[in-house]
Specification:
- The structure is a homotetramer of 216-residue chains.
- The first copy, chain A, has 216 residues and is mostly helical.
- Chain A has a single domain, classed as Up-down Bundle (I/LWEQ domain), CATH 1.20.1410.
- Chain A has 9 helices and no strands.
- In chain A, α1 packs parallel to α4, α3 packs parallel to α6 and α5 runs antiparallel to α6.
- Chain A is globular.
- The N terminus of chain A is likely disordered.
């Protein structure tokens, strides 16, 4: 890797730019395609049909926040990188594979919420496993970037520290939720919701915001 | 690389670039997915079937202009920002959640236009509420950016002033239209159309353009 | 427009960048969504069903090349622009509205090719009118950019000159094809194919390429 | 703005940027649309229905990796280019046409895997031909870029060399696989899987990584 230091930085940065653009594209599409699965559910009055589709709204919200959290994490990771290398691009591709697969388990969960426990179990486990794989691939990307010197060393940034700790917590939470999913799938779906909210809400920043407000 | 000591800002700008790229992606997809709901409506001659689909065209146009107005406003907001911070990224994510949800109420409106008043009421209210939420989240983003010093102070720009005033007007107009929607839903759907056109047409610029033309 | 010259160029360029990113997004999605309408057509052997879907392939190809030509033209126009202004952004939005509508007439044409003449007439006329509107909006954007001083003056570029002449020719060709579409719709669909190819093939560059090759 | 006299190059670079952005968009959408074809297959228990959809998963994986490989290759090609020209933009458009067509053969393969040999043959041959066309168009782009001086000469880069050799190998492998597809289509579908993995895995980098690890 020593002679890689001579690599013109412009070219390397371009590679990073396109990786970000492609990733933003895949994530944006995966997150926006979710709406195609929303539909009113007969029978009943219009309002009744609209409200009867609540499982689809729940699944939509969980999946949207989960992909949103993945985007935020991806953003946080590559923001600290100076360049990418061939292996990192492939890890990123696997990461995108897992994320772009998510609309399918989302549909499973949406349909499962009004079907038998067996369906709920299937939906809960497949959704959880997909999120766990996303999480593990992301960890692999972060580890590889750090080991390969692709990331410049400002890891004392508290926002980064919070994100790092959160994602380790999330991985454990997904494993536990999947295990729960085999027994009481509904609880694990609620857990995915909680994890997604936990990942997206920047507690430190919100805290700072509240503090700033009260001391102003 | 010597002046990389200024990096914090560069990094922050990168974050802004990706936020814009991701937002552009989600908005572009939401606006383009709308076409999937267009289809001729049997029975009748080809031309008759094509024209009978007018509710879908109206809904398509209203939604396209509404998302277009949201993009223009987003553009106007971030254009004046130097950087983003974790909280702003999350507010933006919620904003995108509301925008990417819009194709669903659009479908409701399209289908409602040829169904009972109950359906029209549902479509009109859900569409209006979604637009109002988009509007309020956008206001929250603007307020947060201003308070947090993320925006640089060129707010005397008359184009910006016009956009600002318009969006406050739009929020009120949406509240009124939703209220009307409970009683005469068709009127409120027409109102959404009018609001979208009002938001998209840059009256000041058009006026300037006409004036320049006549004085040339 | 004189005091607009004091406008920081960075901000103006950002606005242009996002307009391009958003336009690229909408055009890329519109061009890629076309594939969703491809499907084999029973009955018959697999190969027979595959080949029986030829109308969908023809419509796919015509629409892909037409949107591709629109992207190339958009690229050629904004490449010469230093900045954008509020009115230009709105014209661009209307342009995108027309382009993102195109998958619907494309579906009409694909279905019409194996239905009655009335269906072919509808498909041919609606597709042609959409292309004509795209063409006229594009002309309006070009004219506005030139009049408003948004474009810097290198219009002696022969590639630009060729594109300009081609697009004026295309507008006339679309008008003629639409008129033909009322009488013999199949001919006008073939004409759209020919126009799209005519717009996409860069005759001057191909000529130069062939010449360079033979003189090398 | 003083050194804007060099503008021709800046303009050309802009053209390259937009070509990359548009290509990233089309590739990202094509790769993400694949998920729309995933669905459980009745009858049976939930798990049974989920597993019965394995042909769709295989096709999804093969297509995702194949488009991913195309993106990596495109990235590698344009990364070394200083500018684009009109002909290159058109070649790129044809390349995108072939890539954005791929979801259709992918669906054919997914459906064929549980149907008669005739269907498998059709799926295998159409998928293989599409991949071969993508491959040949990509070779044409590379050759044109080299001949036209659009690419700057750092072809001694071993990563590039590996990519180049791999893609020549892939073209031959696709021709052989298509021929096999006429006789034993299932084998050729497995071959497409193997080729995609072969294209995506960066053997040289993995090797270097393993070597570095063991010598650290």
């Amino acid at each position: 890797m020593v002679d890689e230091g001579r690599r013109p930085l412009a070219g390397a940065t371009l590679g990073k730019d396109r990786m970000e653009a492609f990733s933003d594209g895949v994530l944006a599409i995966a997150i926006t395609l979710l709406v195609l699965d929303l539909a009113v559910r007969p029978p009943g009055s219009p309002l009744h049909q609209f409200l009867r589709a609540w499982p689809a709204y729940v699944a939509y919200l969980v999946a949207f926040l989960s992909i949103g959290a993945a985007w935020l994490a991806h953003n946080g990771l590559t923001d600290r990188m100076d360049r990418v290398d061939p292996l990192f691009l492939r890890l990123n591709l696997l990461f995108l594979l897992a994320v772009s697969f998510l609309p399918f388990p989302t549909r499973l969960v949406a349909e499962a919420l009004e079907r038998s426990t067996d369906w709920k179990r299937l939906g809960a486990v497949v959704f959880g496993l997909t999120m766990l794989v996303i999480r593990l691939l992301f960890a692999a990307m972060g580890r590889y970037a750090r080991r390969g010197g692709l990331r410049h060393p400002r890891e004392d940034d508290p926002d980064y520290q919070e994100a790092h700790k959160k994602f380790r917590g999330a991985a454990i939470a997904y494993v536990v939720s999947i295990a729960i999913g085999f027994v009481v799938p509904l609880v694990s779906i609620l857990a995915y919701f909680a994890i997604a909210i936990f990942l997206v809400v920047p507690f430190r920043a919100v805290w700072g915001e509240l503090f700033r407000k009260s001391s102003a």
